[in-house]
Amino acid sequence: MKKNYDLIIIGAGPAGLASAISAKENGIDNILLIERDIRLGGILNQCIHNGFGLHRFNEELTGSEYANKDIQKIEEYKIDYLLDTMVINLEPDKTVHFINKDLGYVTMKPKAVIIATGCRERTRGALNIAGSRPSGIFTAGTAQRFINMEGYMVGKEVVILGSGDIGLIMARRMTLEGANVKCVLEVMPYSGGLTRNIVQCLDDYDIPLKLSHTVVSTHGRDRLEGVTIAKVDENREPIKETYEYIPCDTLLLSVGLIPENEITKMAGIELDPKVKGAYVMQNRQTSVEGIFACGNVLQVHDLVDFVSNEGFIAGKGAAEYIKGKVLNKADITTKPAPPISYVVPQKICSNDISEDITMYMRVNKIVKSGYISAMLNGKEIAKKKQVKYLPGEMINFKINKDLLEGQTGELSFEIKED
User: Fold this and answer.
1) How far, in whole angstroms, is CA 308 from its chain's centroid?
2) What is the per-residue pLDDT for 128?
3) Domain count along the chain
């Protein structure tokens, strides 16, 4: 441990690992990774299923295999890291406060900070489901950790609320462990997960997916005994005539992910209410100079490959900042048009664009066919055709730097249906 560092990265999941590697490869040697868990890798350590790395490594890996590739680089580059360490405050002047059982209470003021704290699951408390509080109700991620890392089976007769990717994957995982997954419920008229996960995790195991359905109440005193489900109307209100009781001992919740932005708020960073993460420039610098954000703390991704890509962007951006390159002026602001719900980055400094910019966005409804139009001050400068747009799948739109360099104004994105 050194007394101070040029760059401190908060979080050592896929985004934090990638940003550390990127900063090192862009000339920064004095780097510290801080991770609250007891090992590097973040959520990837509990993801023992495959499907990771297809874009980045051109091979199919488990989550832990994917993480291990970056961890080997961290070791090879001799990047310092602290495990089992909790950051408790980040000040706007980049002072980092953290607690470690061996070091005690420590403060450091690096030249730059990268926030890579990931996201968390919405819990039962956010859903207002009626009923008592029996055991047997878990978020899907908690159940995944219990089974894959701690070796505990959480239940035998299972209902899953929410069709996000973690919920779909846990439907398969519970089935493989001998549980009876009775159904997956989704309050929306479409699934929130990747199509491949619907096919591989539900269809292949004959697990029914009930769209426009929710849980209206839970039953049981000590242990969950059953749930009452119902179909919902266009306003997502339960239809009383459709109430149905399903006996079960376990309810898994996969009802959305929220960027873990407590540290971001402490630093006084401006948040985008649409994406729930920070407003950022193309190099992932936030509204506070010298503090960067990347990965699921910025926007909830569907693929870890894209999380790593964003980590590489933030790592390079922080390295350039430390070496004196500062992007302060936002010449271009980005704007989504419905059904596109958000666009990241939200701001672009057009006077210093070193490479093409990839815009990340999502839709809030299914669009069967069409193309995305990128318009600068109302004039189309680029477009991208796609067969189908799904809420569960992130859209990547790369724009040539020559189209933006030296420009000012508003860069808007809209989908024009065929």
Assistant:
1) 11
2) 75
3) 3
